Amino acid sequence: MIGYTTDSRRRVVFVRAWGTVTERQMIELARALERDATINPDWSCLIDARDAGEISVGGSFLRGYRSAFSRTSLRAVLASRPVVVGLSRMYALSQGLDDTFLVCHELPEALAWLGLPQSTRLPDHVDDLNGGEAATG
What we know:
Elements: E1 2-7, E2 12-22, H1 23-35, E3 44-56, H2 59-64, E4 75-78, H3 82-95, E5 101-104, H4 107-114, E6 125-126, E7 135-136
């Protein structure tokens, strides 16, 4: 499942992935972000995938996946599982995002990469875009 929330003051989108993550959910996320008039594609994005379980996403899908963010937007993925780390790095390399995309294990590293204060707290709640139950942190 995937959900997001925004912080317009800090110009950042917080995405949370938990449980099973599918290609369909990733497509829905990109569409929702594109439709959200409060988001600028140049904002930063922090993706917390530490609670992601089964990943039903293939390499060919990732190579063709179109993000809602600009090529200059800074993105950080928090990942604890090797499969999430590998798929995230594969995506970044396939899109040529070497200078704007970080995959890491710890929140302080992600916050520093995005230029956010170390006091930044991740959102306590995001709604599942696909109508499932909400995630709380």
